[in-house]
């Protein structure tokens, strides 16, 4: 019987080592760092709560949180509505469904960097494709990435284009769980397509919607590469995301203590938001 | 009638998805001075954007860096993930619950909290500018462990018992008995891990500064952001095309598996 | 089955996996560790720009021919994002060279205070050597807050205004615009919408609208130094830039953007906008010359002028010099011997080699009057303009948070100058407050 006590520990030991080095220690060290000022090369300096005080007075960080919220507020509804509509159409006994699905899925698998570089060109002010189309249609040029009130929505639109394929497929899976006889019953009562969608489909795929909300929330909170490549956080800090700001503090100015404080606070915020969302889902059931 | 409308809508939407990719590829082959008016085809094709890009950045080297890193991480995740997943699903030992909770804890922990300290660990280990920094922190993946655990649970105990009677070691059981019976799980985990590693940018940006060790997306990112493209759109797009190409080629062949894997993570969360 | 053999098998199997992984890793990693066992000699890093690499190679070869007892091993700084970041990584990873020759002056104080640099003034004969090379204000400029000197001024690239001669003539100007009102007047005449689409498509000038901190080194900062005769931004850990000069610069730049004399959108770079006459002027350094010579269209004429100044300006016109200096790391074994090498490195004949090979100005006093360089300047009259300017350049203030200061200024610059959501007064006040907040803790 001895081997039963020994072997499992051997098997899980790499995980435990990894956990201690790359999870447990970092979490503890991160809390420790929040009370210090350190640029890695000079000695560490204890600064008490001043990192936290600075955080609550840091207008750019607060702005970056608001930006992230703006991003989510545009991205999530846009994503859910477009994914639902497309999934619903695809669910109508369409031929070539596989082809369409694969097409919509393409941006999902491609690196975010590729999508960002591509859209940066499409969004170009002077000769970008979108503005050329707009001029043809008789609208003026739009400062997609240079107008402070449009830049973040532009990024949210691009993110939707990139991710919607995944959510279309998730919704398709959800839609296929709706029993066909529900619709047949509705047909007998003379319900039209829209009514059926609202009355039958929507309530039944509610869990999928919540899942999509949580997934996009997590994704939105780690928004980084898109503003990093496209706008550098500008114009007027309108696209700086919390992640981009943490990166800047940590790996540009080497304020390890302050960056750790921002990361710690931001992580708590993310956890809170996700908890609230999850609780809401559970209550709903 | 309504069907026809649906088809028209679908075709228009798919154009929205295909055309930008088409434009990107064509633009990378267009002479720089025609880019600003390009819609469908340039007056002639040229490879000059690609030639200039190859001249400016070690993109081939970065491709092999990425490939090596992604393959190493995927191999590690499969091996370690199945070992832990097996122990958690099929063996009994003290502390099993604890390990399980640690895994759940790790999964819910936002990476923002560990990013800075992890960088400091890499610095203290002297791993900045080395493959270690890119590979070792990623060798263990909690999602893979959970997926293996789930999948192994569905394999009949008889199979394992029979192997034990034959005198197989536990590792043999995992890799010779369970693996051949878990192909779908392995494919899913491999695709997910490979893709996530291949597309990762933030971590390489932090730990790699030497251009010759950079991963492909990192190099392309810095090329797009930095001054070396001299704000020529063509060369930036050319580097983006090369970055997209490997994954798109894989996708064309393994499309179904890609979609299934991505969906399965979605459903797991 | 017996337990021992079972265990053995596990261990063996595990070993196999690990060795496999290790082999994969080590084959690819081996190249990382090569540089560690270089025999003891001076390790010198230059920048990785091609011209500077050939210069550094030339110098070290010459030195090694004559000094067999003290070899210098030269290596360009490993390529990567920016040399600043690589130096930081090297300090952190304890892989610093002995000498680095391309240190941006604004970064030195950070490393000095972290205690990784040699205080050169403690070396025998250094002060005398420095005083022979540089003016007293340059020496003052590179003196750390603790009174020591951690760097040797090496080279500068002063920022001036390049202008298109033909365009200015067509605009009816007999001399290039020098004051703000002359500049604005020229701008007004040049601004045009060529294809009548309602959007301007030629502008008097252009500066990068990106808020990256160092972009301000090429617009706001040289204009500020010009307006203020070389005043500081930071003094004794306090912001001192909220003054009439900065206000004038902000108002001037705001005017340029408000009236669309400078484009707010990035010019898409089909061609160089200056060489294609899309813009008529630009604030730039000597590097522009070789670029222009290579790519300019036929009968394109250009020259350089001092930075624009307020109308009532008097006295010489200063600018930013973009100084790159030489530092010695504490990890080096014998700094006194290194100083010997550096004296050779910075000798007049090698400074001449530097300017000949790289078209960058050595930072030494009265270079425009020094007969050693006279021949070069006769052959390169445009460089002589920069040499004259070199008598009135300033580098950076001594501060460990200089980048953040520029970043804050850049944020306010964007809000005020580019988007006009703040008045110049508000912007400077906010910048001052934000900078002083950084000094508090």
Give structural attributes.
heterotrimer, A: 285 residues, mainly alpha, MetI-like fold, two-stranded antiparallel ribbon, 13 helices, 74% helix, B: 269 residues, 72% helix
TL;DR of this structure?
The complex is a heterotrimer of chains A (285), B (269) and C (441). By secondary structure, chain A is mostly helical. In chain A, 74% of the residues lie in helices and 1% in strands.
Main interface: chain pair and counts: A-B, 85 and 85 residues
C-alpha geometry of chain C: globular
CATH class group of chain A = Mainly Alpha
CATH homologous superfamily grouping of chain A: MetI-like
- Strand content of chain C is 5-15%
Number of helices of chain A: 13
The whole-number mean of residue pLDDT values of chain C reads 87
CATH fold field value of the largest domain in chain C: D-Maltodextrin-Binding Protein, domain 2
**Termini separation of chain A:** 46 Å
- Could you say which structural class the secondary elements and strand pairing of chain C correspond to? alpha/beta
* E-strand count of chain C: 11
Low confidence ranges of chain C: 1-12, 17-39
Mean pLDDT of chain A, nearest integer?
Answer: 89
Uncertain segments of chain A: none
The strands making up the biggest β-sheet of chain C line up spatially as: 2-1-3-9-4-10
General form of chain A: globular
């Amino acid at each position: 019987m001895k081997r039963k006590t020994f072997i499992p520990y051997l098997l899980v030991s790499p995980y435990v080592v990894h956990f201690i080095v790359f999870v447990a220690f970092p979490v503890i060290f991160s809390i420790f760092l929040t009370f210090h000022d350190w640029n890695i090369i000079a000695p560490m300096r204890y600064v008490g709560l001043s990192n936290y005080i600075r955080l609550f007075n840091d207008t750019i960080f607060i702005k970056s949180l608001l930006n992230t919220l703006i991003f989510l507020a545009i991205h999530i509804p846009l994503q859910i509505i477009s994914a639902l509509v497309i999934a619903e159409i695809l669910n109508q006994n369409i031929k070539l469904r596989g082809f369409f699905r694969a097409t919509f899925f393409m941006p999902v698998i491609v690196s975010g960097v590729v999508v960002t570089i591509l859209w940066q060109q499409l969004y170009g002010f002077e000769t970008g494709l979108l503005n050329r189309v707009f001029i043809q249609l008789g609208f003026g040029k739009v400062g997609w990435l240079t107008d402070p009130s449009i830049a973040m929505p532009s990024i949210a639109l691009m993110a939707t284009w990139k991710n919607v394929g995944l959510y279309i497929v998730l919704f398709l899976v959800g839609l296929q769980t709706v029993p066909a006889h529900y619709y047949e019953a509705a047909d007998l009562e003379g319900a039209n397509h829209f009514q059926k969608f609202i009355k039958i489909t929507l309530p039944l795929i509610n869990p999928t919607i919540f899942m999509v909300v949580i997934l996009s929330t997590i994704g939105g909170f780690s928004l980084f590469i898109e503003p990093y490549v496209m706008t550098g956080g500008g114009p007027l800090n309108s696209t700086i995301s919390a992640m981009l700001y943490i990166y800047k503090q940590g790996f540009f100015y080497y304020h390890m203590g302050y960056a750790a404080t921002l990361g710690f606070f931001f992580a708590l915020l993310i956890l809170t938001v996700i908890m609230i969302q999850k609780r809401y889902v559970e209550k709903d059931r | 009638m309504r069907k026809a409308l649906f088809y028209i809508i679908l075709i228009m939407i798919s154009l929205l998805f295909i055309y930008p990719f088409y434009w990107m590829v064509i633009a990378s082959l267009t002479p720089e001075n025609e880019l600003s008016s390009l819609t469908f085809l340039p007056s002639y094709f040229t490879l000059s954007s690609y030639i200039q890009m190859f001249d400016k950045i070690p993109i081939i080297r970065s491709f092999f860096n990425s490939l090596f890193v992604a393959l190493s991480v995927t191999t590690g995740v499969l091996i370690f993930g199945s070992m832990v997943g097996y122990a958690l699903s099929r063996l009994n030992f003290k502390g099993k619950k604890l390990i399980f909770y640690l895994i759940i804890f790790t999964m819910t922990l936002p990476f923002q909290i560990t990013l800075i300290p992890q960088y400091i660990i890499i610095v203290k280990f002297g791993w900045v500018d080395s493959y270690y920094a890119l590979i070792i922190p990623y060798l263990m993946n909690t999602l893979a462990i959970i997926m293996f655990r789930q999948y192994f649970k569905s394999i009949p105990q008889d199979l394992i018992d029979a192997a034990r009677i034959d005198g197989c070691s536990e590792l043999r059981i995992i890799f010779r008995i369970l693996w051949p019976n878990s192909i779908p799980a392995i494919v899913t985990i491999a695709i997910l891990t490979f893709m996530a590693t291949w597309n990762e940018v933030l971590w390489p940006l932090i730990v790699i500064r030497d251009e010759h060790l950079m991963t492909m997306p990192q190099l392309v990112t810095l090329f797009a952001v930095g001054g070396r493209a001299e704000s020529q759109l063509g060369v930036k797009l050319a580097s983006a095309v090369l970055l997209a190409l490997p994954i798109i080629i894989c996708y064309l062949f393994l499309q179904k598996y890609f979609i299934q894997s991505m969906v399965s993570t979605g459903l797991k969360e | 089955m017996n337990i021992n053999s079972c265990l053995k098998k596990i261990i063996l199997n595990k070993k196999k996996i690990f060795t496999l992984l290790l082999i994969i890793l080590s084959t690819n990693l081996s190249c990382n560790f090569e540089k560690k066992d270089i025999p003891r000699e001076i390790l010198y890093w230059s920048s990785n720009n091609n011209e500077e690499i050939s210069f550094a190679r030339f110098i070290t070869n010459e030195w090694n021919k004559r000094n067999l007892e003290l070899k210098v091993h030269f290596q360009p700084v490993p390529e990567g994002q920016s040399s600043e970041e690589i130096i930081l990584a090297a300090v952190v990873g304890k892989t610093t060279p002995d000498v680095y020759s391309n240190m941006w002056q604004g970064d030195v104080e950070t490393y000095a205070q972290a205690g990784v640099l040699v205080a050169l003034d403690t070396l025998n004969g250094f002060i005398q050597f420095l005083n022979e090379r540089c003016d007293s204000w340059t020496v003052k400029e590179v003196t750390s807050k603790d009174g020591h000197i951690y760097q040797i001024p090496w080279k500068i690239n002063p920022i001036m205004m390049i202008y298109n001669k033909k365009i200015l003539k067509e605009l009816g100007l007999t001399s290039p615009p020098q004051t703000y009102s002359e500049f604005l007047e020229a701008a007004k005449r040049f601004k045009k919408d060529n294809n009548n689409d309602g959007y301007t498509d030629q502008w008097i000038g252009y500066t990068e609208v990106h808020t990256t901190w160092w972009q301000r080194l090429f617009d706001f900062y040289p204009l500020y130094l010009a307006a203020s005769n070389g005043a500081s931004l930071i003094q004794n850990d306090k912001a001192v830039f909220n003054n009439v000069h900065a206000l004038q610069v902000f108002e001037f730049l705001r005017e340029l953007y408000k009236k669309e004399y400078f484009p707010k959108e990035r010019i898409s770079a089909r061609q160089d906008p200056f060489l294609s006459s899309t813009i008529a002027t630009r604030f730039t350094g000597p590097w522009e010359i070789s670029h222009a010579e290579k790519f300019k269209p036929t009968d394109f004429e250009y020259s350089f002028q001092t930075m624009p100044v307020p109308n009532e300006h008097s006295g010489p016109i200063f600018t930013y010099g973009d100084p790159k200096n030489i530092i010695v790391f504490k990890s080096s074994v014998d700094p006194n011997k290194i100083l010997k090498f550096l004296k050779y490195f910075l000798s007049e004949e090698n400074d001449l080699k530097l300017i000949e090979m790289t078209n960058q100005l050595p930072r030494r006093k009265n270079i425009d009057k020094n007969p050693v360089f006279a021949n070069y300047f006769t052959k390169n009259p445009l460089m002589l303009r920069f040499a004259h300017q070199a008598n009135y350049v300033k580098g950076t203030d001594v501060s460990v948070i200089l980048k953040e200061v520029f970043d804050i200024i850049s944020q306010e610059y964007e809000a005020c100058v580019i988007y006009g959501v703040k008045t110049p007064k508000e912007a400077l006040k906010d910048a001052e407050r934000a900078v002083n907040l950084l000094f508090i803790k």
